[in-house]
Amino acid sequence: MRTTVGIIGAGPAGLLLARLLHNAGIDSVVLESRDRAYVEHRQRAGILEQGTVDVLRAAGAGERMDREGLRHDGIELRFAKRRHRVDFPGLTGGRSVMVYAQTEVCKDLIALQLKEGGPLLFEAEALAVEGADSESPLVRFRHEGREDVLECDYVVGCDGSWGVARKAIPEELTQVFERTYPFGWLGILADVPPSHDELVYAHHDRGFALLSMRSPQVSRLYLQVPEGTDAEEWTDEAIWDELERRFETADDWRLERGPITQKSVTPMRSYVHEPMRHGRLFLAGDAAHIVPPTGAKGLNLAVGDVVTFARALVHLKETGSAERLDAYSETCLRRVWQAERFSYAMTTLLHRTPGATPFEDRIQLARLDRITAARSAEQDLAECYTGFPLE
Ligand code: FAD
Ligand code: DHB
Which stretches make up the FAD-binding domain (predicted)? Predict the structure, then answer.
């Protein structure tokens, strides 16, 4: 098989890239190791930045998002039983975010790709990328029990944090920056209307908690838990009791309970692989960088990477100049590091770190106080949360 752009992975990065290339008249083939149902139901991100919303609309993939997504104009910070609303449009000159689940973004993009895009092969596992620094790189893959080869002009590794693409970049050219956190998130989906109409990020002595949603009928909630926690250790009742404690306020706010339909634990990690390009192999999304989920940046960064790649390739086709493609890694990394900084700051602001000293606890509260007291600090949070502009 031969194509212009070989895409490994049908997460949001790979699927959106295929769509952007299709719209620009550039052919691609997407290889995805899992089956369609798995990709469409993997419970992950829920918040789309303004820029991501604009990109999906412009790509012709925004119709259902505009119908069913929930525009959010702010979040609530909750600490010391106090509530503080951060007003996004007022602080950013009109920007907001959209609550629309990653599962739904993937469903929409898969439907479009199968209807009018190039090949999208499920249960097609990439085994290795070869010849990244040659004119014609290739992907070896296994599909329907047979090994095959995809010959490409370019390969984009959108294969997530455990993918194979980045292994094709020689170690001596690679630098990895990493940080792990001694806690994770226990996430639940529950069939109960969200107890608040905006997201609530709660700081508590017992640990962080987040109230989010998937629809007006379905709540998504997270609890900070110790690293290595097994979700089955937590009964449904214990989860609701703990959420209730951490969201407690001085007023009469109440957390509504309902049947829990899913629960799982996500570890927290910061990770950046530099460079994001080697020859004709490009890395995009979680394949190149991971952020802890506090601040909701992962999916949005993946979108930024593939937009940058698609624009650079179109620029090459239209002008003959490879300048933008050559600058891909540096261009993406500037944005990536801003998101790393913000996600790290939000994580350390809101979580309880085991072994933190009383001094550090007070500093954390002082940082929260600063956001509620100084417009400049609050504005910085609102600007970062609603998104970093694409270059
Ligand atoms: P992935 O979604 O991981 O997709 C990679 C794809 O490649 C997968 O389908 C995988 O099966 C496939 N693959 C892997 N190896 C191979 C191979 N060898 N061959 C073929 N295919 C392969 N981000 C946000 O922006 N906002 C949020 O609110 C948010 N919340 C989150 C909450 C949780 C609990 C978690 C876990 C993550 C959250 N994120 C959030 C992060 C976000 O989900 C990821 O950043 C996003 O999925 C990255 O997309 P991707 O396409 O790069 O990678
Ligand atoms: C969700 C996840 C996040 O990491 C976040 O900061 C906000 C919302 C969510 O899954 O809804």
Answer: 2-343
Q: Give the count of domains, the chain.
A: 1
In a domain, 334, yes or no: yes
Kindly give the distance from the C-alpha atom of residue 199 to the centroid of ligand 2, in angstroms, as a whole number. 8
Residue 12's CATH number: 3.50.50.60
Q: Whose CA is nearest to atom 7 of ligand 2?
A: 296
List the pLDDT tens digit at each of the 391 positions of the chain. Answer: 999 999 999 999 999 999 999 999 999 999 999 999 999 999 888 999 999 999 999 999 999 999 999 999 999 999 999 999 999 999 999 999 999 999 999 999 999 999 999 999 999 999 999 999 999 999 999 999 999 999 999 999 999 999 999 999 999 999 999 999 999 999 999 999 999 999 999 999 999 999 999 999 999 999 999 999 999 999 999 999 999 999 999 999 999 999 999 999 999 999 999 999 999 999 999 999 999 999 999 999 999 999 999 999 999 999 999 999 999 999 999 999 999 999 999 999 999 999 999 999 999 999 999 999 999 999 999 999 999 777 7
Closest CA to 155 of 172, 143, 167: 167
Report CA-CA distances (Å) from 74 to 50, 166, 200, 302, 378: 13, 37, 10, 23, 11
> Which strand (E) or helix (H) includes residue 146?
strand 146-157
Which among 100, 201, 222, 328 is annotated as catalytic?
201
Q: How far is the CA of 300 from the centre of ligand 1 (A)?
A: 11
- 8 domain-assigned: yes
> Is 385 a known active-site residue?
yes
Amino acid at site 266 = T
> Residues with beta carbon inside 6 Å of ligand 2?
45-47, 199, 210, 212, 220, 293-296
Query: In which domain, by residue range, is 114 found?
Result: 2-72+97-178+269-351
Residue 72 annotated to the active site: yes
Ligand 1 touching residue 45 (CB < 6 A): yes
In a domain, 185, yes or no: no
Beta-carbon contacts of residue 302 (< 8 Å; ≥ 6 apart): 11, 12, 13, 16, 158, 284, 285, 286
Query: How remote is the CA of residue 366 from the centroid of ligand 2, in Å?
Result: 24
Q: Which residues contact 345 (CB under 8 A, 6 or more apart)?
A: 295
* Chain center to CA of 274: 19
170 in any annotated domain: yes
